[in-house]
Amino acid sequence: MYQITPYTYAKAKALGVTVKSSTKRHKKLDVFRDGSLIASVGDTRYSDFPSYIRDKGEKYALERRRLYHIRHKGEGLAGELAKELLW
User: Fold this and answer.
1) CB atoms within 10 A of CB 51
2) How confident is the model at residue 75 (pLDDT cuts 50, 70, 90)?
3) Taking the CA of residue 29 as centre, how many other CA atoms within 13 Å lie in the half-sphere pointing to its CB?
4) Domain count, the chain
5) Which domain holds residue 61?
6) Nearest Cα to 39, choosing from 75, 1, 2, 87?
7) Contact (CB, 8 A) for 78 and 39
């Protein structure tokens, strides 16, 4: 199970959504708005910005974030939520 970071909780609050560890296999987060599930985001088999900071340092994490944003454009609601909450 994915351990939600303070970074993700802060981003979720700013977006007006709540997050819980996902009940779906290979997903990190279930995202809720007004108590209703709107998306399951993030793949547990891949790292995210807070994980890279913890494991490899901030400089490396910032580069991975830059590359992630280049690769992931216009991917719908779930993709945008993943980008905002995890990167």
Assistant:
1) 18
2) confident
3) 26
4) 1
5) 6-86
6) 75
7) yes
